[in-house]
Design goal:
Structural class: alpha/beta
Radius of gyration: 17 Å
Number of strands: 6
Largest sheet: 6 strands, mixed
Distance between the termini: 18 Å
């Protein structure tokens, strides 16, 4: 099968450098243009499935793609939602430092292993993404193409799971308005394009 993945477009909270994993926020004007750019890039690609997270910014990014590919089956998977940051949502790094300095400093030292109060643990997040990915792979036949529209953290975890890689989590980048492509055959996965 061919798996395409795309990050949702920009939101106002991206510009403000806020933590907002589970906060439901809309795209801004730049994000809407990035969604339109994704549509243009996928114009000549046949899509059998379009999977989208349950959050508005991903759904708004997927909506024009769905409109263009009305033959595709569309499924919302909340397992693909971004990692939740609990009480830190809506705050930037400086604001978290001021309001929760001890947990912030500890988390900065071990962000993938330490879980501050109210924040979703990375292991729970990874397990949730794995469940969503398993459903996608079980649904899509070998000759079919699926598109996933989700979040940066979600796509980073999927990348690591698909390639069984030890790549630094923070070094994996997905650009809004672009898609990346994986070819999956049996249990072998090849990254064939990044940020097209």
């Amino acid at each position: 099968m061919k798996l395409l993945v795309a990050r949702h477009g920009e939101t106002p909270l991206n510009q403000q450098k806020k933590f907002y994993g589970s906060t439901d926020v809309s795209l801004d004007a730049v994000g809407e243009e990035q969604a339109a750019q994704l549509v243009r890039k996928l114009n000549h690609t046949k899509l059998d499935y379009i999977f989208c997270s349950g959050l508005m910014r991903a759904q708004q990014t997927a909506r024009p793609v769905v409109k263009q590919h009305d033959e595709a089956e569309v499924r919302m998977l909340t397992d693909l939602n971004e990692k939740g940051f609990g009480n830190w949502e809506g705050l930037n790094a400086d604001e978290i430092q001021r309001s929760d300095p001890q947990n912030w400093e500890r988390w900065l030292e071990s962000p993938l292993t330490l879980t501050p109060p109210t924040v979703e643990s990375f292991m729970d997040f990874k397990y949730r993404i794995k469940q969503g990915l398993t459903e996608i792979l079980a649904t899509t036949e070998s000759e079919e193409t699926a598109l996933v529209v989700a979040h940066l953290g979600t796509l980073r975890v999927m990348h690591q799971l698909l390639l069984a890689t030890k790549t630094d989590f923070w070094a994996i980048h997905f650009d809004a308005g672009c898609y990346s492509s994986y070819m999956i055959h049996n249990h072998d996965t090849i990254l064939t394009a990044l940020n097209v």
